């Protein structure tokens, strides 16, 4: 079910959601979190598909904020922005106040919306907010009345995130802030900005893509004999941010420099080789869905390891919205080791 609500107000959206819940005989109390998505029209539908898939495991209310810059009036923007700013200043602590009433034109709320329910919204409901003019600058005041009470708020930027997510208006209200520097317009510059402004609530999906690699490597090194690693090498795609984070993790945890080797036509990490006195411990991915484990003195072992999708990564981070201490060490300490 998809319901378009042009020129609407936040109280009307909240009322419509309550009405839909009553008609279906269900309650929003079954939601385990509110997922805020800051994106644009180009990436909106893909982001919602990913959120829908993740919501199967984590029933949530998804609120996507998509600024409608194409229909914002430049001549009215300054007036509307000042009016809305005044309303925000006076009423920020009172979510019951509907700031969409602040437009100079009583017939124009500066907000279009869409509500998706049922099969079109995964295991929850989706609210798409399209503010224009002055409301573009105050997405938090639009979102607050629509949050599910007493559940955590998670903010997700599917593409280029703000330089400082914790200071962003949506990010500031979130218990967990999920970015994806790999999908930004400049991954290297993005991760550098995120590092400078990192807080414990921040996580990047470039790191989450490495979960399986890290788990398998840790399991391999847990097997005897527990000999020290004297050298390490990682192979894979050139200029691939997850590969750099993997090198930073290995350098930090093993205490040895990590050599990199770029493989032509590779799409991701293709192998990790750890040298010990008794030989080389290696983990390779010759095929997208298989990994090859080689240990000194043992026959190579092939295991099934499907490529992680963005849905897998988001689902994992929604499952664990507490600070990731290992990522904190890698981004704050390990990254400097490989850069130096």
UniProtKB/TrEMBL annotation:
Domain Glucose-6-phosphate dehydrogenase assembly protein OpcA N-terminal: 51-196
Superkingdom of origin organism: Bacteria
InterPro entries xref list: G6PDH_assembly_OpcA (IPR004555), OpcA_G6PD_C (IPR046802), OpcA_G6PD_N (IPR046801)
Domain Glucose-6-phosphate dehydrogenase assembly protein OpcA C-terminal span(s) in chain numbering: 200-330
Compositional bias of kind Polar residues: 70-82
Residue numbers spanned by region Disordered: 69-109
Stated name of the protein: Oxidoreductase
């Amino acid at each position: 079910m998809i319901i378009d609500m042009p020129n609407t107000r936040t109280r009307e959206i909240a009322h419509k959601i309550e009405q839909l819940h009553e008609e279906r005989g269900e309650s929003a109390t079954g939601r385990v979190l509110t997922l805020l998505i800051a994106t644009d029209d180009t990436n909106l539908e893909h982001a919602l598909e990913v959120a829908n898939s993740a919501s199967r495991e984590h029933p949530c209310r998804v609120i996507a904020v998509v600024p409608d810059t194409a229909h914002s009036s430049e001549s009215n923007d300054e007036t509307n922005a000042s009016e809305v700013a005044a309303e925000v200043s006076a009423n920020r602590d009172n979510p019951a106040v509907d700031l969409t009433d602040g437009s100079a034109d009583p017939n124009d709320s500066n907000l279009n919306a869409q509500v998706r329910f049922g099969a079109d919204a995964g295991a929850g409901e989706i609210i798409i907010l399209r503010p224009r003019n002055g409301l573009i600058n105050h997405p938090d005041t639009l979102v607050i009345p629509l949050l599910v009470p007493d559940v955590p708020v998670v903010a997700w930027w599917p593409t280029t995130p703000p330089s400082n997510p914790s200071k962003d208006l949506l990010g500031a209200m979130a218990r967990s802030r999920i970015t994806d520097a790999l999908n930004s317009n400049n991954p290297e510059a993005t991760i550098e900005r995120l590092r400078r402004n990192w807080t414990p609530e921040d996580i990047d999906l470039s790191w989450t893509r490495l979960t399986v690699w890290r788990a398998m490597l840790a399991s391999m090194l847990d097997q005897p004999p527990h000999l020290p690693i004297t050298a390490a090498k990682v192979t894979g795609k050139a200029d691939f941010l997850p590969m750099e984070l993997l090198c930073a993790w290995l350098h930090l945890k093993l205490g040895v420099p990590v050599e990199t080797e770029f493989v032509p036509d590779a799409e991701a990490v293709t192998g990790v080789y750890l040298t010990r006195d008794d030989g080389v411990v290696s983990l390779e991915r010759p095929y997208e869905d298989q990994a090859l484990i080689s240990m000194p003195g043992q026959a190579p072992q092939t295991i099934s390891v499907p490529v992680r999708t963005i849905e897998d990564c988001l689902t994992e981070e929604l499952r664990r919205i507490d600070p990731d201490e290992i990522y904190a060490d890698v981004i704050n300490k390990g990254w400097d080791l490989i850069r130096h």
